[in-house]
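Spend some time on the protein that follows and explain the fold to me:
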Amino acid sequence: MQLHDARRLHYDVRLEVDGVLKSWAVPRGPSLDPVVKRLAVFTTDHDLEYASYEGVHADSKYGSGAVIVWDAGVYTNLTPGSAADAISNGHLKVRLHGVKLSGAWAFTRTGEDWLLVKVRDDDADPSRDLTVSEPRSVLSGLTIQEMAASRPSGQET
């Protein structure tokens, strides 16, 4: 999961499916509270190499601005059938095994957009907001602001 300061700050959830990164932009980030539904806008597929990208984009096909790897790990598809079929059918349930995020999460299509919701399990915790308490990259240790300041404007890394 990357934090991307493009036109608007958002979290990009990226799951490897059939050799590409299926991607959702989540403006408010993930919530550990199962009653909170987060807008998740399905975006273009990304190349696998992009999963570990950190830097500052200038006029990139993936959007300009600073990017950090906010969380990293693997996932397990909990939906019957393949993850690709689940996405096509509009409902994907996964278990995340990340540095910051763990437990089950559900993506559900609602018209053109999707919702990301934490499933009620032992990892649910309505009292915690990791987007506030854990702002740093799991790779570089930088915040999104520090990443943006690390490169002169207009230079892509």
